[in-house]
Specification:
alpha+beta; 3-stranded antiparallel beta sheet; two-stranded antiparallel sheet; 3 helices
């Protein structure tokens, strides 16, 4: 039997804990395109896809939000 891996949505505190980046740094890097964009969960709530954060953490210096990690 196959189990499908679900892509969880992480809230800001979890992303800060995983990356070690400050809140302002996350948002600045999102604007620069060097950090994954957040997704709207509800009217006043956003989060990040866990898979995108893991992809970023594999190579944060070469990450591009347009296409993931650059070669």
């Amino acid at each position: 039997m196959q189990t499908e891996q679900t892509d969880r949505i992480l809230r800001l505190k979890a992303v800060i804990d995983m990356t070690g980046l400050a809140r302002t740094t996350l948002y600045r890097r999102m604007q620069e395109g060097t950090f994954p964009k957040n997704v709207q969960i509800s009217t006043r709530c956003v989060g990040w896809r866990e898979s995108a954060i893991r992809e970023w953490s594999q190579n944060p210096m070469s990450y591009s939000a347009q296409g993931g990690t650059r070669s």
